[in-house]
Amino acid sequence: MRKLDKLVLKAFWGPFIVTFAVTEFIFLTRFILLYFDEIAGRDVGLDVYGRLFFFFSLMVVPVSMPLAVLLSSLMCFGNLGEFSELTAVKSAGISLGRVIRPVAVVMLFITGFILWFNNTVQPWANLKGYSLLWDIKTTKATLSFKEGVFNNDLPGYSIKVSKNYENGSLKNVLIYDHAESNGNRHVTIADSARTYTILDGGYLVFELFNATDYVEDVDKSSGDGNTTDFAKNAFKHTKKYINMRSFQMTKTDEDQFKNHAIMKSISQLSMDGDSLKNNYELAIKGLVSMARQYYSYHLQPLSETAQKMPNRWVDSLITAREKLPLVKSTDITASALSSAKSRLTSIETDDLLMYDRRKNIYKNELEWNHKFTTAISCLVMFLIGAPLGSIIKKGGFGLPVLVAIVFFILMYVLTIQGDKYAKEGTMWVPLAAWMSNLVLFGFGIYFLMKALNDSRLFEADVYSIAFNRLKEKVMNWKSQTTLFKKKSRAV
Asked: How far apart are CA 41 and CA 144, in angstroms?
């Protein structure tokens, strides 16, 4: 490896690692905030949240990598230009293309890595992450007792307290036991109580003080004739154990999430695409056979005799019709109108079903294309960042960050719009999926041509000189016009 390659790579790796960490953190934070209301307050433990954030961080790698490449390329070549290192290299007769070549090779490896990541790691991370997110969302929030309000979170119990202290102590506790689903026949009233959990949170213990237990119809099922309609028991101190199974997180079968497109690899999406297209074609062919039941003659198969002699077949229909009893024309019209309305409703229903099938095909094909577009976008962003950094000649997190945000927003808007057009079927899916890369590739080629020609595209004096020249031309044109008018008047 030559010293030039070492210089350029050394200038690139530092900003790349920093920018990737920053963009990864930003997109991870956005992901967490998106589901914050659904996962906050769940008593599932820090290890579960840690696993969820780990899967989320893997999910956002394909999104954060293009922005990190754009930022690091801008900063790398901006720093080289700001400290006149690019000028020194060019003065030695080395072209800009030779300077960016080592980083371009690195970009090829990063593109291949992202393609492999999209095909193997991301589907696995999506499956694990979203299934875990569902488990957390379906887990009940931490049990809490609001003062003066009945709490029904515990299955089979309705509990009300007048005062809830921070140390878990409760005042004036009222407990309705509905475990047997026989109404309010079992009530417990306590002057005070203390709550805590045992067996790793499996059971909630109510330690009651100065409690009274009321039970109605306790012994009516004994059948010995000695029944008691009402029982009252007083306790100085007693404990009540309640199962907390409903508050524990249960693991959902991951097979329920595997049918989504983002959980599949390129080969699986290809197989699904073929199956969806075949099913769609079979459904289209089946519409004709299903439509036969709505017609008396049209779309009905003809016999061999009728096919050989169609005129006689029509004559036989007319003869058969003449032999039938007379029917009012209004009845025939009403019957035809009813049949037409029924057929129209059937057609509208079939059209909606076919539209849903087409949307599934579009979504599957779009996801298949995105496996490649997110990888190629790293190359496209490098093609923009490297020449643009050499033109701007500014490093750090100032101007490069502003430029990167502009192009990333453009990529994001074009991607969202392309996905919308693809899912609606208003644009060819490959064109919609690759639209952002194609547009940004045009910007990259333009900036590369300007950089190779040592263009001063972003220097203020260039535009100042151009403005002064334009101003001078306008003044000359005005003076010539005034002189022409004076001569015309003199004549």
From this structure: 11
458/474 Cα distance (integer angstroms): 25
> Is residue 430 located within the same domain as residue 468?
no
pLDDT band at 78 (very low <50, low <70, confident <90, very high): confident
Instruction: Tell me the two tokens of residue 491.
Output: 């004549």
Only one residue has tokens 């790691």, namely 121
Q: Which pLDDT score is estimated for 108? A: 93
CB 272 within 8 A of CB 264: yes
Give pLDDT tens digits for 302-322.
555 555 555 555 555 555 554
- In a 3-state reduction of DSSP, which class is residue 213? strand
Number of domains in the chain: 4
**Cα–chain center distance at 324:** 64
Residue with tokens 């644009």: 427
Q: List the one residue out of 22, 74, 96 whose CA is nearest residue 394.
A: 74
Q: What is the mean pLDDT of the chain?
A: 78
- Give the CA count within 13 Å in the CB-facing half-sphere of 26: 12
Do residues 25 and 73 both lie within one domain?
A: yes
* Residue 292 CB partners (closer than 8 Å, separation 6+): 299, 300
Strand partners, 240: 206
Q: Global pTM? A: 0.69
Bridge pairing between strands 157-164 and 169-177: antiparallel
Which whole number is the average pLDDT over 230-252? 71
Is residue 328 within 8 A of residue 229, CB to CB? The reply is no
Cβ pair 70, 382 in contact under 8 A: yes
- 100 and 165 in a single domain? The answer is no
Q: Same domain for 382 and 362?
A: no
Higher-confidence residue of 82 and 445: namely 445
Q: Based on the fold, state whether residues 131 and 209 are members of the same structural domain.
A: no
Report which DSSP code applies to 395.
-
Residue 456's H or E segment, with its range, is: none
For 363-394, what is each residue's pLDDT tens digit?
889 999 999 999 999 999 999 988 888 888 77
**Whether the Cβ atoms of residue 100 and residue 426 lie closer than 8 Å to each other:** no
Q: Is residue 151 part of a domain?
A: no
Query: Could you tell me the residue range of the domain that residue 474 belongs to?
Result: 459-491
- In this structure, the answer to whether residues 373 and 348 fall within a common structural domain is no
Q: What is the pLDDT of residue 434?
A: 92
The span from the CA of 64 to the CA of 278, in Å, is 36
| Half-sphere CA count of 423, side-chain side, radius 13 A | 8
Residues 490 and 380 in one domain: no
Q: Is 147 inside any structural domain?
A: no
Residue 29 pLDDT > 70, yes or no? yes
